[in-house]
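[Automated response] Your request has been received and processed.

Submitted sequence:
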Amino acid sequence: MLSYPIYKGMSAMLLAVILYSINDALIKWLVESYQPMQIIFCRSFFTFFPLLAVVLQKTSWKGLKTNKIGYNALRAGIMALSIPFYIYAFKILPLADAYAVAYVAPLFMAIFSIPILGEKVEKHSWIAIAVGFSGVLVMMRPGSAAFSLGGLSALVGGILWALALVIGRKLSQTEKSLSLTIWFMGACFLMSSFFTPFCWQTPSLLDWGLFAISGILGGFALMAITRAFSLAPASVVAPLDYFIFIFGALIGYVVWGDIPDAFIMLGALILVLSGLYLVYHEARRRPLVLVSFEEM
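Generated structure:
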């Protein structure tokens, strides 16, 4: 029987998934008029407000210090670099299609854990990875919408995100979750600030509002995910992340009239099942030590 904190963790994860799907829909809307770097710049600016509120309420600036500046910068930089690829994928593909291809990330996390964490991937996990890649091939078959620059962009974004998450797993042994989040947002703001002056378009008042909503939702989603993993084991909350495919499909249908084709649905199902297996196996092999929200 699940305990009350675990239910709270599951609720927090579902809230994060809902917030991210709405946020991504706003990005898909905005990318029709603005370049990805300007979107990242404006969103990062507004995301700092909810994060700053948490810093002031839950911890002190001293809690954000790190002795691993190089690793933090590398992880944050790779994670920030993945965002333009995701945004471009949202521009070209329906939300559900972009999510489906990007969920190659758990497969690459298992692969990257070998050289970075020194872990051994067992035979049945390699089978799950191979099955997962077959799902990618089903979705990205020649002639499909996913077999395009948009699909390739989602794939690259997923690979970069996986690499950053594995480095983050290594850092999580000594670094606070909130510190890792702020490093990531700082990298996004710094990276985009170099390119934004060359692609800047002055937003309308409505679009400023959309940027603000997107950034604030993103900040609250980050906090909700952190809250979820502090209350419940990864084996419980991580699979809930796949619900974003459902929410993305619903939003895509209501707003843009997009309907995932049968091959996207089949490939996504194969990819999700293989990813769930890897999450379950990882949770059994490496029990999660829960951390209270106040300690982040």
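Summary generated for your ticket: The CA atoms of residues 48 and 219 lie 7 Å apart. Residues 287-296 have pLDDT under 50 and may be disordered.
If you did not submit this request, please reply to this message.
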